[in-house]
Design goal:
The protein is mostly helical. The chain contains 14 helices and no strands. It folds into two domains: 60 residues; 170 residues, Orthogonal Bundle (MetI-like fold). This is Cellobiose transport system permease protein.
């Protein structure tokens, strides 16, 4: 019996080593683009096309970033992007959680059809609606404004789907029925019972929405024309409008524009992981 246990223990240890090795290699592959971006941000433009590629940091980080500041309003673009992403994230969390709560815990005519219709909007490429959406924003007088950019992101089908699935599994029907018997309104139930339970899902959806809006370019580039209203993505695009492209300068701007996303993820990392693993452990 002891020999069999030893064999099983060896097999388990070997399998764990293989899994950890695979995860380690996958992590290196995932992190390498960020590391290479950092290396290029510290090197001159010529290092971008060097063969063999340069893999060690240089000493031009400050110089390259000064070039970025001389070309664009970097901090103004960062502030505009932060305001845009923060407002969109808050509104999406509110709308998606309310809609998810309704789809998960209420019965009303056409619920399934409406939910399927919401999901079907995710398969439509956003480029197809670019022209009519532009004309609608133009007629509303919202061109070259942050509200004109953010209004397009308020309805988030993926957020509604995630909230509906999470609330269906995490919030017991008995708890809602008990609250109704105590005389709580639907919004009181949502505010006092549902919201505290779905905080991990809030963190997950918040990170997804914030990073998606931060990295979106096409719609922001279409709507914004005044340099004072540029988000960081539109501002960085101006760095490549010159004849002699300085890749070190561009990579420096992209690197520092990525830092807020890393900070946001690290701040909500625990809630993000707990949301992903919800249901895997009883």
């Amino acid at each position: 019996m002891s020999k069999q246990k030893e064999k099983k223990g060896r097999k388990l240890s070997i399998s764990k080593i293989i899994v950890y090795l695979f995860l380690f290699l996958a992590s290196l592959i995932s992190l390498f683009p960020f590391y290479w971006m950092f290396v290029m941000a510290t090197r001159p433009s010529a290092a971008y096309n060097s063969i063999p590629p340069v893999l060690t940091p240089g000493n031009m980080m400050v110089e390259n970033f000064k070039k970025v500041l001389s070309q664009i309003d970097f901090f103004g673009g960062m502030w505009n992007s932060f305001v845009l992403c923060a407002i969109v994230t808050i509104v999406v969390l509110f709308i998606s959680s309310l809609a998810g709560f309704a789809f998960a815990k209420f019965k009303f005519p056409g619920k399934n059809v409406l939910f399927v219709a919401v999901l079907l909007t995710m398969i439509i490429p956003p480029q197809l609606g670019l022209i009519p959406q532009y004309f609608l924003i133009s007629k509303a007088g919202l061109l070259n404004t942050l509200p004109g950019v953010m209004i397009l992101f308020f309805l988030h089908p993926l957020g509604i789907f995630l909230m509906r699935q999470y609330i269906s599994e995490a919030v017991p029907d008995e708890l809602i029925e008990a609250a109704k018997l105590d005389g709580c309104s639907n919004f009181r139930i949502f505010r006092s019972i549902v919201l505290p339970i779905i905080l991990p899902a809030f963190a997950t959806l918040g990170i997804i929405v914030f990073t998606a809006v931060w990295g979106e370019f096409l719609w922001q580039f279409t709507i914004l024309r005044d340099p004072e209203m540029y988000t960081i993505q539109v501002a960085l695009a101006q760095l490549s409008n010159t004849q002699n492209v300085d890749f070190g300068m561009i990579m420096s701007g992209v690197f520092w524009a990525t830092v807020p996303l890393l900070v946001i993820f690290l701040l909500f990392n625990r809630l993000f992981i707990s949301s992903i693993t919800e249901g895997s452990v009883k």
